[in-house]
Design brief:
alpha+beta; 7 helices
């Protein structure tokens, strides 16, 4: 994907009218393989204005067409039992997927990760971003690494300190 096309990517907050599309994506084999049970994700999406209001659920668009789903969240609000339990205050987790198959394998994930980072930078007080991809998801891991995320063997997380984010954004610009 060239930079001209990457500029046509955007992220916006999920709306109720997006839910059927996100639901369809979550049940697709290429998403379910990495995301697991769609019902867990949908529970959070349906209750995003209530119990899960601390998670920012978003739609990824390319040329104004919805092509995927992403979210970011303050890890201190997730409760206990996660690999990020001991991360410092100001740690935000990110998740992302491309739901439309025709957009897979085009290098979009690198730019999506960049956009999520920009979104967090604009809207939150964050000191680091983390991602927890399934270790077999080599495409996602490569995209995270291209954005400057570093694997932490102690936690199994990919981390990006916010002071590194601007350098990462410059590299992809």
């Amino acid at each position: 994907m060239n930079d001209l096309h990457a500029e046509q990517l955007s992220i916006r907050l999920l709306e109720d009218t997006d839910i059927p599309l996100v639901k369809a994506w979550l049940y697709k084999d290429h998403v379910r393989k990495w995301y697991g049970d769609p019902c867990e994700w949908l529970e959070e999406i349906y209750d995003r204005k209530g119990r899960y209001d601390w998670i920012k659920h978003c739609i990824i668009e390319f040329k104004a067409e919805p092509i995927g789903f992403c979210q970011y969240y303050d890890c201190s609000k997730t409760g206990n039992g996660y690999s990020w339990d001991n991360e410092p205050q100001g740690t935000f987790g990110i998740d992302y997927c491309i739901g439309e198959e025709r957009y897979l394998g085009q290098g979009l994930a690198c730019y999506i990760i960049k956009l999520i980072g920009q979104q967090v930078l604009r809207n939150e007080i964050a000191i680091q971003l983390i991602a927890d991809p399934v270790l077999e998801n080599s495409n996602s891991i490569r995209a995270l690494e291209k954005n400057g995320y570093v694997f932490c063997a102690a936690t199994g997380l990919y981390k990006l300190a916010m002071h590194q984010l601007s350098r990462s954004l410059d590299r992809l610009a």
